[in-house]
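Support reply, case 0932

Customer input (verbatim):
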Amino acid sequence: MSHSQPAISDNIKQYLINQLKENPENPLLDFAVIYEQQVAWGDMDAFAHVNNVTYYEYAQSARIHYLEQVGMFDKTTFTVIASSSCQYLRPITFPDKVWIGVRCKKIGNTSLTQEYVFYSTDQQVVVATAETVIVFFDDTGTQKRAMNDTEKQGFLQLDTQSIRQTLGKK
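Our regenerated output:
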């Protein structure tokens, strides 16, 4: 498995290790993959907060980061988004930085359901949650394909590497 960035950057990892004592309820402690998203000025709309559509773009970047961790974002893996949803809890603005935890909620035969938690570093709270269903296709893009056991195991193995699980705290 080759990937360009670690599943969780060192600064986020250190923050979460501290959270084990200071705020053990922080939901990011249960994610093995966390994508760091800088809010850009252009992400805001006329209401001076990040536009709702932008959260889907952030989730897409987090999803790609996740799939890179298991070597499945390449020219041999074909996926389609079957559904996606987002629940907005609090507005975010420039120049916030959002940490997006992403993990598998359900692994099916031809599909994968991922869940996301959007954590504002400025507000120190979860500002949104989301869910995406990804369907796997063959290389023609016309037929669904089953994930093999190695692919499924890769997702399961990755998701067991959260800060809480790797440090043995529950």
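We compared this against your earlier run and they match. Two observations from our side: The chain has a mean pLDDT of 92. The beta strands are 33-38, 78-88, 97-107, 111-120, 125-137. Please reopen the case if you see a mismatch on your end.
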